[in-house]
Specification:
Elements (H helix, E strand, L loop, with lengths): L3 H37 L4 E7 L5 E7 L21 H8 L7 H7 L3 E3 L25 E3 L1 H5 L3 H6 L4 H22 L3 H12 L1
Parallel strand pairs: 3-4
Antiparallel strand pairs: 1-2
Helix pairs in contact: 1-3
């Protein structure tokens, strides 16, 4: 678990760079949100309840990539017919995640950490696994990078939900536990750079 000092360093980093990011990215996000609205014929900003630090629910912000995407399901396959052409472009370059910079600024997310899941995953962890609830969920992180092609993996499985729940989710928990155990600002910077480049 992170010490108080480490938590402060992490929060200061998040706050400083989220403010900088908001100044740079607000206009591009607005443009992309308008285009997403036109593509989906719905509000271009997608808001969904996720589980955050200490298993507290919060609302994550994303650019809408699908028609009728208000499902509570945590799994979206690569070939999901609900994904618009513009949505595929947003997903390809992870641009749909850009509005989460506001989540980081507000303080219910961090730049780096475990990805926030819908109810039924992190909130029901037991034993040592619950340690991942002691930090804020992140836009990116070691598990996110390892499974960056998760949708492609799940798309070729006969039972994607079962595979996700029994294989991928358990491995993500172990990766995130290791991330917390070995946390450093240097590692966070490394994950951010890997995500960007």
């Amino acid at each position: 678990m992170l010490t108080k000092k480490q938590q402060l360093v992490k929060r200061f980093f998040d706050l400083f760079f989220s403010i900088l990011g908001i100044l740079i990215l607000t206009f591009p996000i607005l443009v992309l949100a308008i285009l997403a609205t036109l593509a989906t014929k719905n509000n271009g900003i997608f808001i969904q309840k996720r589980i955050g630090m200490h298993a507290e629910p919060f609302y994550i912000l994303k650019l809408r990539t699908m028609i009728n995407s208000d499902s509570k399901d945590n799994i979206t396959l690569k070939n999901d017919p609900r994904i618009t052409k513009f949505g595929k472009l947003l997903r390809k370059y992870n641009l749909d995640e850009l509005p989460q910079i506001y989540n980081v600024f507000i303080g219910n997310m961090s730049f780096v950490g475990p990805r926030p899941d819908v109810k039924g995953y992190a909130d029901i962890l037991q034993g040592d696994d619950k340690v991942i609830l002691n930090i804020k969920p992140g836009i990116t992180g070691p598990a996110t990078l390892k499974f960056k092609n998760e949708n492609e993996i799940l798309s070729i499985k006969s039972n994607p939900k079962k595979y996700n729940d029994e294989i991928l989710w358990k491995e993500k928990v172990e990766i995130n536990k290791n991330y917390i155990k070995n946390w450093s600002l240097k590692n966070d910077l490394k994950y951010i750079l890997k995500t960007l480049f």
